[in-house]
Amino acid sequence: MEVPSNLFISFFYCCFLFTSGYIGVEGSGHHHHRRRRHHHNHHEKHEIISDYTSNKPSKLFVFGDSYADTGNVRKSLGNSWKEPYGTTFPGKPAGRFSDGRVLTDYVAKLLGVKSPLAYTWMKLGGKKLRNGMNFAYGGSGVFNTVGTLLPNMTTQIDLFEKLLVDNHDSNLYTKSDLESSVVLACLSGNDYGAYVATGGTVQGLQSFIPRVVNQLAVSLQRIHGLGATKIVVTALQPLGCLPRVTQMSSFQQCNSTLNLAVNYHNLLLQQAVDKLNNYTKTPTFFILDLYNSFTTVLNQKGDYQGILKFETPLKPCCMGISSEYFCGSVNGNGAKMYTVCSDPKSSFFWDSSHPTEAGWQAVYKTLNSSLEQFLQV
Length: 377
Ligand SMILES: *[C@@H]1O[C@H](CO)[C@@H](O)[C@H](O)[C@H]1NC(C)=O
Ligand SMILES: *[C@@H]1O[C@H](CO)[C@@H](O)[C@H](O)[C@H]1NC(C)=O
Ligand SMILES: *[C@@H]1O[C@H](CO)[C@@H](O)[C@H](O)[C@H]1NC(C)=O
Ligand SMILES: *[C@@H]1O[C@H](CO)[C@@H](O)[C@H](O)[C@H]1NC(C)=O
Description:
single chain, binds 2-acetamido-2-deoxy-beta-D-glucopyranose, six-stranded parallel sheet, Rossmann fold, two-stranded antiparallel sheet, alpha/beta
């Protein structure tokens, strides 16, 4: 598949304005990983069997961006800590890029564990640490997006690895914990936002997309090398359907040119994951298809049961009053520079990039059974 040559990706960067340059250096941690992998494979065959028959996954570890973040981004950096974020759940702004629950919360629900604590709040941990940990930072990518302000996926995995090593004696997370855990890796497009914002050309996209997917595959492999045996990775959602793009058509239609580029990313991801699974022999990596689930929910204007209804599915609940403002913006006097719909439950999108809790719930319902099957829960 080819990326159309007239493609110019508009601004679909999720949460932040860019403050500094983007540097794409690939592959840290790779060699390290190779050494570990052989060691790991010896154990795998025996232990996998017991995992399937007895252990339910008991922990969830999460890497990625705002679709998965539950409070890592600092309050000064993101609008996720401002009104009206969090009004549905937990009832006030608490670091989620939605009015309520996000993807992480629904995956945790499927596993029957509490949503894992955001890494930033680890010190408050205590018993909560037993559910795993969330290392996802809104606005991040596999490469650096906002300079080095946000930990990219490699750095997020570094933080995780450091936690394993530093707490080796206290057994915070043991190797067998990891083997009975689920990992969610969520990438929703910030690398492409950064690419465009820093002057990336259309022609260059054809080679940039493979670089993003390759780097993602390196991260997935490394997570496996640390001992994880169930790794769920998201396919890219239809970026051409995000409100920040569809506002050009008054929220009437998705931009199919953009979605073609997304399809290319997803095709390469599928190939990379097939290869990884072929290599590990047991099904270790699973693609959570956000492309099809978003598309399905948007097309049927609700969930398949007709319980959730989204009348104008492309229109977000919360919007800046003009293009210079965002959901959550206030002016110098503290006055709201945004509008919020009366019922977030009837909107699929919350703001210009992120689904509402209801939106995520509808998406989750379309994914639940295939994910359940993969995880054997
Ligand atoms: C789709 O997006 C591309 C890139 O931003 C833009 O050039 C094109 O005009 C858009 N198409 C429509 C139908 O809006
Ligand atoms: C991730 O961030 C670190 C720290 O800024 C940087 O050194 C590294 O090159 C980045 N990794 C990738 C793959 O861009
Ligand atoms: C899977 O691995 C086998 C060798 O182990 C190889 O022959 C085959 O081409 C691989 N398939 C893919 C899709 O990588
Ligand atoms: C997941 O789907 C199954 C049917 O496939 C359903 O019985 C179950 O209640 C769903 N779980 C959740 C948490 O929605």
